[in-house]
């Protein structure tokens, strides 16, 4: 075994192939050609005197030797990343990486605002793709196909890292101007009198929180429909007697711009009942999620810019919010 021939890039290739069990996916993740991945794998096979991965129709199967090596390789890559982060000076003006960001509909505006008003003026050679998230992208984030996602608390993945942007502390009632729901004190019984339209993201909550709380109180709610689109929600509410709810300050800011739409903050006791239905093992709120495999200084810098700006915008939006009726 000629261990002196081992190099860092080959270890990166090994870890990626072991995770994807596919050389093509590893090449895409690492920005390499397939022939470059093959060359690194050939080097690894010679160094460790083992084929490491057996090709099958459904993909690669790691050998026993590869499975034994993987934890050590992962530790070496992590240590290298920590060394690079601690001792490499990052200059955003010369960085040239590309980042893909997915965000729920409510977060796309503020995410784009952060990119164009905060990040690009400091790092003009970076490029970004900001897309609306409408399905569970945990695997794509873990694999590095998506660099960042701005999501609510309901996500999972063993290789995901999550930083809390803001906890959910307020919830808002939404309906058309002049809706009778605004005529009296807001109570749970009063809310249940009207059809309810759920603003939902890819069915991450199987039953609306209002329906869950109502059921426990011996009440019922007619669910008029579901949508993950703010513009569609606005049309539904303007054209009917339905009401909706949101826990997002950015959603409320958008809806305030829609003519004849009204929002108000729900009473604290109702908010606590609704939030109490969410139990996913982490603080209920908004998160920036990314993969643990990315250790680049540029990625870390972009992450911090996103966190700082989104947090600032969130609390600015809260400060100018409406009070309960």
Automatic annotation (TrEMBL):
Which GO molecular-function terms appear in the entry?
DNA binding; DNA-binding transcription factor activity
Q: Where is the HTH lysR-type domain?
A: 6-63
Question: Which PROSITE patterns does the protein's record reference?
Answer: HTH_LYSR (PS50931)
Alphabetic keyword roster: DNA-binding, Transcription, Transcription regulation
> Could you tell me which Gene3D superfamilies the record lists for this protein?
Periplasmic binding protein-like II, Winged helix-like DNA-binding domain superfamily/Winged helix DNA-binding domain
Which PANTHER family does the annotation name?
HTH-TYPE TRANSCRIPTIONAL REGULATOR LEUO-RELATED (PTHR30118), TRANSCRIPTIONAL REGULATORY PROTEIN (PTHR30118:SF15)
What family is reported?
Belongs to the LysR transcriptional regulatory family.
| Entry protein name | LysR family transcriptional regulator
What is the source species?
Ferrimonas sediminicola
User: Lineage from the top down?
Assistant: Bacteria, Pseudomonadati, Pseudomonadota, Gammaproteobacteria, Alteromonadales
